[in-house]
Every structure is written in C-alpha cells, then in structure tokens.
Amino acid sequence: MSGPQPGMPGGFPGAPGALAGPPQKKLDPDSIPSITQVIEDDKARLGGQVFSTNIRGQVPPLVTTDFTVHDQGNASPRFIRCTTYSLPCTAELAKQCQVPLASIIKPFAKLPNNETPLYVVNHGETGPIRCNRCKAYMCPYMQFIDGGRRYQCSFCNCINEVPVFYFQHLDHMGRRVDFYERPELSLGSYEFDATLDYCKNNKPPNPPAYIFMIDVSYSNIKSGLVKLICDELKTLLEKLPREDGAEASAIKVGFVTYNKVLHFYNVKSALAQPQMMVVSDTAEMFVPLLDGFLVNYQDSRAVIYNLLDQIPDMFADTSESETVFAPVIQAGVEAFKAAECSGKLFIFHSSMPTAEAPGKLKNRDDRKLVSTDKEKTLFQPQKGVYEQLSKDCVAQGCCVDLFLFPSQYLDLATMADVPSHTGGSIHKYNNFQVETDGEHFLRDLRKDLQKSLGFDAVMRVRTSTGFRATDFFGAVYMNNTTDVEMAAVDCDKAVTVEFKHDDTLSEETGALIQCALLYTTIGGQRRLRIHNISLNCTSQLSEMYKCCETDSLINFFAKSAYRAILNQPVKNVSDILVNQTAHMLACYRKNCASPSAASQLILPDSMKVFPVYMNSLMKTAPLVGSTELSTDDRAHQRLSVMGMGVEDTQLQLYPRLIPLHDVDVSGEAVPAPVRCSEERLTDSGLFLLENGQSIFLWLGQASPPDLIQSLFNAPSLAHLQQGHMFTLPELDNPLSKKVRSIIGELLEKRPYSMKLQIVRQRDKPEMLFRQFLVEDKGLHGGTSYMDFLCYVHREIRQLLT
C-alpha cells in the first residue's frame, strides 16, 4: 500500500492528508488538524466498546476514549502502550524513519470496576516456571512440544523440560488442555506468588510502614499547616490501604517532628501519653527507640490521637525558623532498617535546609544562567549526600513523598532528588494559606495515602531476539543497565522504555516484550507481576506509520527531552526535537505518500496532530528559556513528567477547554472540549480549562447576569471580588450543581489535586490562564501551532530536496 489512497484516513480539506498550496500567511485554523477532532472521532468509533487483546500488534483506542479491555493474551493498554505496534524489521529502517521505538509501562495501573483484577498464580514450593536460559516467565507465547513434555521459549528459543507437576497433554492444535484454566497461559497480565528465593535474606518480608515527618519550624506553625495536618491525620489514618478482603490495614505508622533537631514519638498502645525523644546530633542519625515507634494504628489509636492533639500546642511558641532535611530522610531509612521493612515517608517541609547538618543547602538560583550553556546546572541536583541517600532509600525500599510549602526558592532540583528516584511524588504549594490552599493540599494527601502500590520493587524488561531494552525513564533508580529499582511504585507511575535493534526482526514471528515486576504488597507478601505484549514487525514503513500512537510518542519525547536538559543547553534540545519531528514526517512523505506537489503538507493519519503536541512540549516551562519563570517551578515540572503515564502527558500538553455556558444541566454528559486557543473563547462564554495540574474557570466579560447569579449568587461580574477567587459557593440551583459536579469529577479522576482558579476576561490573573492555550503563541516565548506547522513544513521540504 503506497500512502493515503483517496478516501483513506489522513485527509483534511484539500486532498487526502494534504494542505493545499504554499503556506500562505492566513491559513484557516479550522483546516489544520485538530486534537479535539481526533479525540472526538476516536470516541465516536471506539467509545464504550470492548477491546479484546487476542490479536498481535493491535493498535488500541486513544487514552482519551472510554473502553473496556478483555485480556485474551496481551497486556491491557492500561498497563502497556507503545509508540508503534508494528516495529520496523531492521535497524536501517528504524534509523531511516527516526520514530523512537518505546513502551510506556504502568505496572500498577488502576482497572475500572468492570474489568477483572489480576489473577494470582501459586506454583507452590518450586515457584514460578521460567526459561532456564533467559529466565523469562511462563506466558502465552511459550510453545509446548513433544506431547507437552517440553516447551520452547519464545524469547530466546531455548528448549526446556516441563516440570512433572506442571505436565499437561496437548490438544489437536498443539495447545495444552488446561489452557483456559491457567492465567499464565491464556492472559497477558497476571501475578505469581513469589517463593523465599525472591525475598531479601530468604525470609518473608514484613508489612510496610508509613512515617509522617512534620517540619514544625516557625512558618509552618504560623500558617496553621501543622494543625491542619494533625487534624486530618486523625480521620485519614482510618483509611490506610489494605489487602483486598482484609479487615484492617497491615501498614504500621510512626511520627516525627523536626526543625534543627528531630523529635521521635513513642506511641506504644500501653502508654497513657505519647513520649517524645529528641535527637540533636543530626550528623550521626539514629532512631532512639525501637519498640513503640512504628505501631499498628488500630492498637495505638488513643495514644496517636493524644499526640496529634498535642503537637500544634507543643510548638505554638516556637521561633525556630531553620530546618534540616537530609537527616530526616536518613532517620526514616534507619527506622525501616531496624524494623526490617519497606515503606513510605510523608515529609511536610517549608524552606531550604540551612541549619548545620549533612545535606545543608545554599541558594544557587541564578537566572542569569538561563539560555546559556550553564542553564543545565539549575536542573542538576547537588551531588554528594542526596545521591547516597537515594541509594540507601532504594536498598531499603524506602519511598519518599514530599509536600513542599515554600515562600521562596528552596532548590527543589536537589530536595526532590530522593523522591524522584524512589517512586515518590513531589507536591508543591507556593505561599501556602490554609483558607485558599488547605483543601487542595488535603486532597493530595488523601490521594497519596490511599493509593494502591507495591514496595521494594525491581522490574526487568525482557524481549524476544533481535531487539532489546536500552534506556529507561521514570521515578526509578538504575544500579545497572537492566534492573529498574523502585522503592515503591503506585498506580500512577509509569516507566518509559526505549528499544533498539541488535539484529533483524522477522515479520512472521513478530516481537515480544515481557515486563516482570517483583514487589512486596501492602499486606507484606512478595509477588511477581507479569505483563506481556506481542507486536508486529514490518519491512514496510507505511505499515509502521499506520500503527504509531502519537500520545505515546509525545510521552517518550517529553521524558527524553527533560532528561537531556540535564546535560546540554535547552536550545540544543529544542532544535533536536524540531529536527526529529521534521525527519519523521519527511520520511513518511518520501516513502509512504502518493506523489503530490511539494507545497502540500502530508502527514500520516496516526501522527497528524503530533506537531500540536510537539509545539506544546517546546513551550513548557523546562524547555522555555525565560528568566520570568521560577527555577523551582521548572525543576518541579521536569521531575513530575518523568514518572507520568500516557494519559497524564497527553492532558498536560493539551489541556481540556470545556464550554459551560450552554451545558445541559439535566443530562449526564459533559460538553465536548474545544480547541485550546483564544479564538475559541467568547465574551459571553464560561469555560473550564484543566490539564491535570491546574484548573481554571474563565468568565467572559459579557457573561449573562443570570449565569453569574446562578454560580456566584452575585448580580453581575462587576460584583465579584477583584483578583484571585478559588471556590464556587454551594448554591441550590441546577447550573451551580452541574458545574460543581463536573469539577468534582475531574478532581476525583486525576492523580493530583488541582486548585480551582476563577479568572475574569482581561483581569490580571487571566495571564496565568492564557499560558495553557497551547495553540497560541507562548507567553514566555514559543510559536503558535499554525506558525510551527508552517516551519516544520519548510524543514520537511528542505529535507526532501
């Protein structure tokens, strides 16, 4: 097949997949490919349907489409998505098209209620069955031969004996008779109970623990934050995650407060009052008590309640404003070591650690470095103490979740280095105020504390012969080139894995990927979680392009660009992104499209909106050389994206802009989003914009008074308070209920909480909102989508001549 045939996908007005004529100054914005249109089309075609995974190399519906997965031998796209589902057969072809070959793996992805949770397989004393040579786990791709007595591994072709207990006869098709009874033979994803060989020191693990570490320095006490945390924990600890079917959570809890020194609390259930022990020698960190520090919450509830009541009062008169930070993490690691368990530290911290102690930091924020060759140093963590801490944390299975409440620069690049290598999350609340940010922070804390996750995890990605995993991007630690180590991995974290050829792939056998994750459950069991996927291989570039997935490609490019800025100037990285975009599209034009005038821009159907995402990526804070952006904010966005899955990067790079002024208040439906551009806003309109990190309600200056009355209980826009507004009042009318329910559902659905910002057209805060209209020119530099498309088109034409 040679490129788009008449009537084939890929077309927008003009010609199949073409923009007619030389790029004129005034192209019609409606004639260039639109993300909202692509999303709506996919929903119309595949929304609400069942996606069965029984076919090799099948391209799934988009991440923005609601569908149900039926696992029939390949992992659900919720667990694994790929940049293309048809790999080029040779390294030459791959080099020619420059399309990265990668998978985005989210091993703990949440499954909707109507999909079956993973089966757990137990092979008894012998443990999971594995190939003797390459150690791949038993899966649907293994070929049983010799009447079922042996099997050939599809990854390395080695022939293995079938253990006696596992023997089963084959049917006339050569399939085992018990094929459908065994998850590992018929499903793409499943778990194995791990034997003691898979445990540290060959003994079963203890259940994990959570330690809450609260900075009680002056600013946190004064803002009311410490009291807010203590009050919330009283109810939140009732909701610690537990194994399915378990009565109570097996997770133990502990409490530390700190400023320049650390205070540990004994909350043993036999005590009438909690006891405090102070460690002031922060250079040699140790945990002053073993018994009574990590406890079962249900047993010690009364003592813990007492403690949470007392903490805000104990430090009410503090004037201590200096803090330590590295020793706090060190204390958590030591506590887990002593208890022989893995776990998570929840650290609530406000300022740069300047007190004399290991890991003390000094201000190195220098915006003069922006747009110079030294800009990369702003993103690099300071070496030494924190590097070693990451290593110690991973070795112990200690994950760090960091909640930051800064009022000025605090060197986030260094402070967030440990969370970003231990599978942790980094939350940041600038100039925190309880009234406006309290709920927003508590939503994050609740989500974080209740997430399903695995601890002390190691992931291996195996492939069939001809290609291999070469690079890994994520909130992970790599001690060697193959083992991806994660102190914890939760349902939102994804690892992006790049593959390279080391031989020719065969169209007949295809390509296989097996991701195996060894981890400890929240109940303290050692398990292996296996995800398998089979892809096609092709010697036709047109087939490879047809099976590409733009949302996965952009996830890969975002992570690889965000890693690259650690080592080279931001400008170089941006140039590479543009060149590679032009190269990928020129290769399609040259090899796959039917002949047409050079002045036509022809894009593969699967990538027709790729330039929108790429242009948006280049306008994100880490890649924009602007001195107006805060260094900490840039570092924060860089690190957040490294752990994201495909859904999250898609939304971050193309926010949803939802018109609410004519919403059907009686129906279930949410209005279809419109394109992210100022041209789509109307003076009399009301729009909601969200990208998974921020959420805005935009009010046009001519908003009808009855709309304003229904939502704000005010007669007109002019009556609303000037400046920043953050909440919608709870009013008893259909419009208010509908809008609040739409916002509530979004807050529920996204991995992070978002703080609602209400902005009026032409008010000052509207500038914040405008930077999310990604089809327009960037506020801090960066071109509009239209200009970028014309620029890429020129680059393509140069490459072709």
UniProtKB/TrEMBL annotation:
Q: What family does this chain come from, according to its entry?
A: Belongs to the SEC23/SEC24 family. SEC24 subfamily.
Residue stretches making up the Sec23/Sec24 beta-sandwich domain: 454-538
Q: Which InterPro entries match?
A: ADF-H/Gelsolin-like_dom_sf, Beta-sandwich_Sec23_24, Gelsolin-like_dom, Gelsolin-like_dom_sf, Sec23/24_helical_dom, Sec23/24_helical_dom_sf, Sec23/24_trunk_dom, SEC23_SEC24_subfamily
One Pfam assignment:
Gelsolin
Stretches assigned to the Gelsolin-like domain: 670-743
Q: Which UniProt keywords apply?
A: Cytoplasmic vesicle, Protein transport, Transport
Report the residue ranges that make up the Sec23/Sec24 trunk domain in this protein.
Answer: 205-448
Q: Where is this region: Disordered?
A: 1-31
Report the protein name in the record: Protein transport protein Sec24D
Record domain Zinc finger Sec23/Sec24-type: where? 128-166
What are the subcellular locations of this protein? Cytoplasm, Cytosol; Cytoplasmic vesicle, COPII-coated vesicle membrane; Endoplasmic reticulum membrane
Specify the protein's topology with respect to the membrane: Peripheral membrane protein
Residues annotated as domain Sec23/Sec24 helical:
550-649
